[in-house]
Design brief:
Elements: H1 3-25, E1 26-32, E2 38-49, E3 52-57, H2 59-67, E4 73-76, E5 79-82, E6 88-89, E7 101-105, H3 107-112, E8 134-139, H4 147-150, E9 151-152, E10 156-157, E11 162-165, E12 185-189, E13 209-213, E14 223-232, E15 237-242, H5 243-253
Antiparallel strand pairs: 1-2, 1-4, 2-3, 3-7, 4-5, 6-7, 8-11, 8-13, 9-10, 12-15, 13-14, 14-15
């Protein structure tokens, strides 16, 4: 095996490992359509902040649920679970560039539904890495989870998480044009892969996490960097709201 092939195999293995870890804390979001049949629309992450459990997703995901007057259904361990509680979400008259919503989940809810919560030590609350070997988005894109195959009646489901690796663009030069701030958002490439394949449609990724692995030699050290909120096709990038800003939002509003 050539050195290049060995390196690629090693990287692919590292991405697969990171995806498995991210998948533990990432949950699909469903709404019930007019026939009361759940429909996969987005993703979410469950994190721990100050000893409490919070489900976090994009605010526009919650708005979509509210607009169709649906239940907010979380997919957990093959079952649909209705979220009962009051969401807090960012919302402005103009476009919401923060785009974060959250709801507190009780310890009883977590235990009853076997939800896995990401510990605070895995939240990247400040950028203290000179370099990042791996950066990947993880969620439940619709194109990888066809509804006719994903749904089994109305009480259970089968969907698969998916990861897309990219490069964090610290040198992105059109922040202001797109209404984003480097202090608030993480910009990551979302373009053709190394084998020239087009990336999948990101629909369904919203509310999922952007995860980083500082070193492929220490795969047990992975962190949630931010929550995905936007994809810009013409710039081949995604934007995610940094998790330290999400934590601050939670602490200020609970």
């Amino acid at each position: 095996m050539l050195v290049k092939e060995k390196v690629q195999k090693f990287i692919d293995g590292a991405i697969a490992h990171a995806q498995q870890e991210a998948n533990k804390y990432t949950y699909p979001v469903f709404v019930a359509d007019e026939r009361k049949k759940p429909d996969l629309i987005a993703s979410s992450v469950v994190i721990k902040v100050d000893g409490k459990n919070y489900l976090v997703t994009a605010s526009h995901v919650l708005q979509q649920v509210l607009n169709i007057k649906s239940q907010f259904l979380l997919g957990a361990n093959g079952k649909y679970v209705e979220i009962e509680g009051e969401f807090v979400y960012s919302n402005h008259d103009e476009k919401d560039h923060f785009d974060i919503a959250f709801v507190e989940l009780s310890d009883e809810f977590i235990v009853e539904n076997q939800i896995v919560v990401l510990d605070e030590s895995r939240l990247l609350t400040h950028d203290n890495f000179e370099s990042v070997h791996l950066a990947l988005l993880h969620g439940f894109p619709n194109t990888k989870n066809k509804q006719s195959k994903a749904l089994r009646g109305t009480t259970s489901f089968k969907v698969s998480g998916f990861a897309y690796g990219g490069i964090i663009k610290d040198d992105f030069d059109e922040w202001e044009k797109l209404g984003k701030l480097p202090s608030l958002h993480t910009c990551m490439t979302y373009t053709k892969t190394k084998d020239n394949n087009k990336p999948i449609s990101p629909s369904g990724f919203s509310g999922g996490g952007l995860w980083i692995v500082p070193s492929v030699h220490e795969l047990d050290k992975f962190y949630l960097d931010s929550i995905l909120i936007e994809y810009h096709k013409h710039h081949n990038v995604t934007f995610s709201t940094k998790v330290d800003s999400v934590i601050e939002f939670i602490k200020q509003t609970v």
